[in-house]
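User: Let's play a game. I give you a shape written as tokens, and you guess the letters that built it. Ready? Here's round one.
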């Protein structure tokens, strides 16, 4: 049965075209049309396999012919017969949307051209059908992922009515998902949020695309407010129009409360810092107290601050320092708000309760509490909503009262920090009052009262040169975390108690910065003395210490060294080196010996050699190929750092990458890697093929460096339009300061880079964060790939990672592929790209070009 072909041309051209088609192996029934009316007539009764349009002497504009074909027989390819055989004319026609192009003088190629156009259209239709099937599968995966998310995952139509909700909404807003279906979503918003949504959503839906970080106030079913932050992406119908939105809304309520708390804590910390500075500069007690009040008003945001001092042994107080509005301060000074009573009751003025019971007293809202109506009335009249009163001194000698025109909601940590503020004032006064103690402080640590480093070195210098001694350095682990959780006063007391406990061990004990130094004369050998010290430290850890009213257990780390000869500084250095070894090895105690000295020397030598390697260009890059899992075409390469040492030859990165990180040399070396990989990429594109991307690894230290983006922009911006490099970062690096990293990765994407997550599955990304990350591909860690064919759990993990990535529109690369079984399994799971020794080992640029790229270029030429 012959196929129909419609020829849109004048009579002369129709004859020439018909003659060219007579030699075709397939018989065609030729239809002709010379006007729009005739085209409509012919297409009304026929369904041609192709339309031929003569552009040499056209009977109408080519654009109009294309529109008629699209209207009357969509999907039928339109082939243009043009005047010129110039490639540019053909490309221009193809860019406008025609299926194919043949020059007038090459009509002999017309049958083949028609066959190719028909075949291409058929393949396109099969591809569309496959995409539709894949879309259906992706939707099922989306539902499965959504139902496991702790965040609210939803879908709405253009009228902002809910068409889907996962179960997480019940825990977030209190409603069953079934109840919400078909409901007009803005009904659950606060007034301002509802107005915002009803104003902005129509504009967003009209534009399509995505929206992100839309923070709105939602009313919980139990009538309290919650803050959710929504991110959505448009859903399109078969006509390409926005039919609704799909998105995720994590609950930020508690997070925002914590942020507000942190902001308040930071303000109080600023006051603490200011008081410390004032104490150093102040020349008098009045200057210090007034400066503290000014800091409380200026830095912490209180409306007024007052320091009142007890008059003798009476119950009367006098204001000695103040800051704030004069009218309020005069009212406070007249009392009875700062007067104590010998029999103060719990319902008395806050200042009275604070002084008599020696504790912080807070009134969070005078309008909500019937606290001595006269006091509340006076406060409200002065515009005061809340008040905190704090005793000054362990045995109170005065009061610090802080007044605010806002309702307070301080928790126990913030009240504790305010109490620390009062303690700081008291401490600063003692500092001023005891300047004569500076001589003592010159040789003692102010927190523990133990001798400091100068005293310790003096003590070491005084022992007989032939007297063998031991030196130990002891450190409290996680002291910074304890300070953040409990505050400075608590931490100082803890450090002091630890120091006294160590001092009781015997010998001479000093407190040096963040650690303690102990020394005593030898009685036994190093191992025996180390064992005794270890027992004492273990006992101190098990017993714990009472700090305030809390029993706290600590973890200690220590290093011990033996010595007789040598300077005090050298003996101290040996003990601290052993301490560093204990900390790195997570041991309670480490001994200093010659082997440790050698390791330390090697570390110093390694750092020196690495600096010389960078300076003398001893580093080089090797490249490991990546291949398309299905077609085995070359998909790219990963740049891997190698060090060609002048004496030791090629050194594996396993032996020096950690040193680069520790010393900070990873930053300049990483910059060199990026520049070298870019040069190689540009050279390969000019010589072989433009589509072979090179990936470079970026470490956490590089990503955090202040100049990283500026240097990357300078290097990559000229090539941003051609995907200059791929950037690989590990999952744990991304989750470290994720908001800043998202911004940095977005900037790299603007420079044309594709972003890959390396070693995926070994970190702790949440689904919500993974959906937000500007990431294009995921690399499955080799630990999962190596167990793929032996461990069902590894197989499940790989399958889950691939499905998750594809559901989020990301590609997947498996690294470390070393066996045919792993290769086949990954193909069956739908992995996109493979990398490993099975497919290609790392090699230098020259070898890569000769062994990989030359073959790739030949294959591209023959396609």
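Assistant: Ready! My guess for every position:
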């Amino acid at each position: 049965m012959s196929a129909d072909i419609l020829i849109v041309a004048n009579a002369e051209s129709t004859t020439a075209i018909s003659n060219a088609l007579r030699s075709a192996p397939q018989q065609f029934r030729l239809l002709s049309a010379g006007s729009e009316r005739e085209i409509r007539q012919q297409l009304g009764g026929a369904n041609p396999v192709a339309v031929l349009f003569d552009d040499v002497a056209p009977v109408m504009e080519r654009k109009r012919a294309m529109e008629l074909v699209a209207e009357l027989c969509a999907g039928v390819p339109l082939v243009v017969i043009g005047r010129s055989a110039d490639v540019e004319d053909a490309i221009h026609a193809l860019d406008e949307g025609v299926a194919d192009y043949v020059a007038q003088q090459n009509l002999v190629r017309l049958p083949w051209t028609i066959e190719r156009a028909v075949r291409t259209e058929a393949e396109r239709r099969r591809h569309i059908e496959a995409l539709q099937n894949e879309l259906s599968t992706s939707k099922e995966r989306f539902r499965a992922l959504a139902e496991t998310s702790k965040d609210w995952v939803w879908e709405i139509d253009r009228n902002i009515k809910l068409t889907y909700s996962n179960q997480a909404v019940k825990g977030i807003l209190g409603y069953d998902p079934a109840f919400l279906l078909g409901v007009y979503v803005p009904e659950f918003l606060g007034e301002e949020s509802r107005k915002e949504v009803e104003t902005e959503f129509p504009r967003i839906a009209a534009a399509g695309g995505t929206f992100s970080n839309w923070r709105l106030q939602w009313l919980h079913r139990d009538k309290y407010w919650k803050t959710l932050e929504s991110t959505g992406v448009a859903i399109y119908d078969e006509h390409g129009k926005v039919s609704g939105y799909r998105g995720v809304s994590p609950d930020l309520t508690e997070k925002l409360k914590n942020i507000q708390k942190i902001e308040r804590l930071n303000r109080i910390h600023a006051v603490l810092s200011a008081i410390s500075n004032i104490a150093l500069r102040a020349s008098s007690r009045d200057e210090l107290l007034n400066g503290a009040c000014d800091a409380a008003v200026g830095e912490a945001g209180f409306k007024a601050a007052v320091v009142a001092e007890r008059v003798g042994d009476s119950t009367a107080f006098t204001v000695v320092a103040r800051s704030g509005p004069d009218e309020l301060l005069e009212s406070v000074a007249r009392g009875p708000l700062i007067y104590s009573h010998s029999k103060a009751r719990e319902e008395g003025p806050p200042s009275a309760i604070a002084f008599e019971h020696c504790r912080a007293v807070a009134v969070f809202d005078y309008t909500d509490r019937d606290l001595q109506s006269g006091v509340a009335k006076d406060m409200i009249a002065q515009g005061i909503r809340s008040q905190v009163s704090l005793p000054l001194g362990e045995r109170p000698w005065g009061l610090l009262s802080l007044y605010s025109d806002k309702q307070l909601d301080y928790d126990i940590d913030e009240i504790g920090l305010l109490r620390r503020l009062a303690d700081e004032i008291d401490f600063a006064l003692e500092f001023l009052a005891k300047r004569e103690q500076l001589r003592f402080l010159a040789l003692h640590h102010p927190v523990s009262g133990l001798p400091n480093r100068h005293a310790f070195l003096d003590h070491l210098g005084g022992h007989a040169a032939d007297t063998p001694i031991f030196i130990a350095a002891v450190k409290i682990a996680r002291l910074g975390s304890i300070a953040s959780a409990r505050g400075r006063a608590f931490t100082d007391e803890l450090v002091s108690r630890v120091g006294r406990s160590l001092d009781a061990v015997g010998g001479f004990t000093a407190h040096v910065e963040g650690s303690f130094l102990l020394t005593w004369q030898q009685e036994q050998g190093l191992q025996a003395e180390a064992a005794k010290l270890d027992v004492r430290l273990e006992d101190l850890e098990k017993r714990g210490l009472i700090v305030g009213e809390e029993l706290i257990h600590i973890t200690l780390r220590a290093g011990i060294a033996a010595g007789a000869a040598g300077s005090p500084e050298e003996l101290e250095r040996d003990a601290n080196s052993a301490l560093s070894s204990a900390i790195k090895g997570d041991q309670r105690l480490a001994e200093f010996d010659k082997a440790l000295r050698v390791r330390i020397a090697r570390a110093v030598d390694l750092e020196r050699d690495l600096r010389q390697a960078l300076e003398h260009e001893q580093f080089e890059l090797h490249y490991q190929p990546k291949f398309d899992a299905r077609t085995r075409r070359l998909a790219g390469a990963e740049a891997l750092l190698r060090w060609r040492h002048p004496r030791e030859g090629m050194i594996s990165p396993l032996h020096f990458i950690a040193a680069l990180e520790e010393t900070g040399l990873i930053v300049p070396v990483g910059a060199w890697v990026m520049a070298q990989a870019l040069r190689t990429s540009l050279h390969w594109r000019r010589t072989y093929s433009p589509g072979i991307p090179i990936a470079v690894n970026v470490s956490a230290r590089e990503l955090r460096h202040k100049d990283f983006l500026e240097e990357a922009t300078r290097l990559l911006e000229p090539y941003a339009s051609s995907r200059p490099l791929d950037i690989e970062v590990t999952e744990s690096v991304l989750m470290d300061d994720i908001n800043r990293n998202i911004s940095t990765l977005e900037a790299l994407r603007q420079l044309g880079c594709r972003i890959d997550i390396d070693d995926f599955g070994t970190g702790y990304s949440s689904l919500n964060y993974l959906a937000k990350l500007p990431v294009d591909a995921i690399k499955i860690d080799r630990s999962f790939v190596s167990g793929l064919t032996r461990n069902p759990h590894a197989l499940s993990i790989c399958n889950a990672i691939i499905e998750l990535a594809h559901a989020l529109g990301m590609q997947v690369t498996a690294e470390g592929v070393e066996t045919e079984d792993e290769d086949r399994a990954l193909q069956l799971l739908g992995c996109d790209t493979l990398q490993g020794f099975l497919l290609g080992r790392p090699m230098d640029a020259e070898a890569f070009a000769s062994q990989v790229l030359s073959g790739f270029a030949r294959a591209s030429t023959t396609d």
